[in-house]
Design a protein that fits this description.
Layout (H helix, E strand, L loop, with lengths): L1 E4 H8 L10 E3 L2 H4 L4 E5 L11 H6 L5 H8 L2 H15 L4 E3 L1 H4 L5 H16 L3 E5 L31 H6 L4 E4 L5 E4 L4 H8 L3 H6 L8 H7 L10 H4 L2 H4 L12 H13 L16 E2 L16 E3 L2 H9 L4 H5 L1 H5 L4 E4 L4 E12 L4 E11 L6 E9 L2 E5 L15 E7 L3 H4 L11 H4 E2 L9 E6 L6 H8 L19 E7 L2 E7 L11 H12 L3 E5 L16
Parallel strand pairs: 3-4, 3-5, 5-6, 17-19, 17-20
Antiparallel strand pairs: 1-2, 1-4, 6-7, 8-14, 9-12, 10-11, 11-12, 11-15, 12-13, 13-14, 16-18, 18-19
Helix pairs in contact: 1-5
Length: 545
């Protein structure tokens, strides 16, 4: 770990240092145990505004013109102000991520990311700089000035700042003018409102009552990082796991994170994501994004004895006779490339000739909705399971089956790879087509409306990279039913809904139809109206940013 020599840097800044002055000093783990240091938590600006490692190393030897240019950067000011605060707090060393990590070295970057939680946790003082706030205290309610960041200063929207808030015991917040506006201990209730991290965790850290995996995941919901993979990497320390850093893997990083957690911790709350959702299905039992856990901030792991008491109320006599085995049955047995092998208490609710619908009881509960265990629903077809986000419709005699422990293989790859595509390749219309039930909460949904002969189907084909349908502009409508087609662009999935052609005199029914679709999908919708003067032969409309 490299640290900035606070006194040496401030002397250099005042022009009182020698050319040979060393601003960065490297320490090994044994030396670090004896050193008190401060640490900065901030939002990165543009790369040209920050001071990089190579520039910090050469700062004392470069020519005066280049040095003065660096001194004008906002990133340099953050380092200087942090050094001044550290000196005032009688701390001789400071760590700043922009200049203390050589990001040109992949090995060093990987080690730093895997160690960062510990570095923040071991710091004596953390300075959290809210660069866009001029308030004299931490906010207690949303402000329209920060509407881009959900109503709070930008610092609270960043993925990395979750661990930077939780790990250190001593965090002080500073506004744009570097005035202290509060500390973590004294402002825990306000910070809980902003971040949904419990007051208990804010005051005691993760060393007290250990939050569930789902609860920790929920802290990262709706947060942003510059690199998609960092949404997973920024949670390594919070979840107590380590893994290789592979930039370029996209959403697969979050999948690897969950698999590593499953191998390390026996906590079934990792399967509880989306448990309040009432519509849709997923081919994967692992989430493809931290946002899926946004309804899990109050979920806690249920201890074994309490979970056993819950199960006893619904187990069959046959299973009760083998209850000592059942008590050990709620553990993940293995993780394979085919799926997650686990024993779960299942209850059959509905069945037909080609499918069965089960509820699975998880060893976790929601503290705000009573002490009952959380239940998820899963459908079995052709010996394979998928996740369902709906409660079954009760039918006489169904849902009254006893709970039995069953060994199941839960797939986990489906929802990840469907969104990862390389260069656009030719696809036919059926390959791009999905059912409305496969639309997910973070999809961008665009409904395309148009009269007979408008060529709206051709426009959709252009947007998703397919050849036009033959005779798309004929008088007979190409689309007689509602269909959905997908296209992945810059990591976001666009879903185009092709509707039945509408006669001009029927367009007054469009608002009613859209209202129905919006209620059914529970998503914001974009609408593109294709008039009869557009034939689908020109340039397609631009996708939403």
């Amino acid at each position: 770990m490299r640290l900035i020599d606070v006194k040496a840097f401030l002397d250099f800044d005042k022009g009182n240092s020698e050319l040979e002055t060393q601003l960065l000093v490297e320490f090994d783990a044994i030396q670090l145990a004896e050193i008190a240091y401060a640490i900065l938590s901030h939002c990165w600006g543009a790369p040209k505004d920050e001071v990089q490692y190579s520039e910090m190393v050469a700062l004392t030897t470069m020519d005066a013109v280049a040095r003065d240019k660096i001194r004008q950067r906002s990133g340099y000011l953050k380092i200087r102000k942090s050094c001044e605060l550290a000196l005032k707090d009688h701390l001789d060393w400071l760590w700043v991520d922009t200049c203390c990590i050589d990001r040109q070295s992949t090995a060093e970057l990987s080690e730093a990311i895997n160690s960062m939680y510990a570095w923040y946790a071991n710091s004596d003082r953390c300075y959290a700089f809210l660069h866009d706030s001029d308030a004299s205290s931490l906010p207690t309610e949303r402000d329209r000035r920060f509407i881009e960041f959900n109503g709070w200063p930008r610092w609270f929207s960043r993925g990395w700042t979750v661990q930077e808030l939780v790990a250190p015991g001593n965090v002080h917040f500073f506004n744009h003018n570097w005035q202290c506006i509060g500390d973590k201990q004294g402002c825990a209730p306000a910070l809980c409102t902003i971040t949904h991290i419990s007051v208990d965790v804010l005051e005691k850290g993760l060393g007290g009552t250990r939050p569930s995996v789902a609860q920790i995941m929920s802290w990262a919901a709706n947060r942003r990082t510059a690199r998609e993979e960092d949404r997973a990497y920024s949670m390594l320390g919070l979840l107590g796991v380590h893994m290789p850093i592979l930039y370029g893997e996209g959403k697969n990083a979050f999948l690897r994170l969950q698999l590593e957690v499953i191998r390390t911790v026996n906590d079934q709350s990792i399967f509880a994501w989306g448990w309040t959702k009432e519509w849709g299905c997923s081919s994967s039992f692992l989430a493809d994004d931290p946002n899926r856990f946004q309804d899990c901030s109050t979920i806690e792991k249920t201890d074994r004895e309490k979970f056993n008491r819950i199960l006893v109320q619904s187990l069959s006599k046959r299973v009760l006779r083998r209850f000592p085995f059942a008590k050990e049955g709620n553990r993940v047995l293995s993780v394979t490339n085919d799926g997650i092998h686990i024993r779960l208490p299942l209850r059959l609710h509905q069945y037909s000739t080609d499918s069965e619908l089960f509820s699975a009881t998880l060893a976790c509960h929601d503290t705000q909705k009573g002490s009952g265990a959380i239940t998820i629903f899963m459908e079995k077809r052709n010996s394979g399971y998928s996740r369902c986000f709906r409660a079954p419709v009760s039918v006489d005699g169904e849902g009254k089956q006893p709970v039995t422990f069953q060994s199941v293989l839960l797939p986990y790859r489906g929802s990840i790879h469907r969104r990862v595509r390389g260069p656009l390749s030719p696809r036919n219309r059926e390959q791009a087509r999905i059912s409305l039930s496969e639309i997910e909460p973070d999809d961008v949904v665009i409904i395309v409306l148009g009269p007979l002969g408008s060529g709206k189907s051709n426009i959709i084909d252009k947007l998703i990279g397919m050849l036009p349908e033959p005779n798309a502009n004929a008088l007979d409508p190409c689309t007689k039913t509602v269909s959905a087609y997908t296209h992945v662009r810059k990591g976001r999935r666009f879903v185009f809904i092709d509707t039945p052609a509408l006669e001009q005199d029927k367009f007054q029914s469009v608002p009613l139809w859209l209202g129905f679709m919006s209620a059914s999908l529970s998503l914001p919708l974009y609408v593109k109206m294709i008039t009869d003067t557009q034939t689908g032969t020109g340039s397609p409309p631009c996708l939403p940013a």
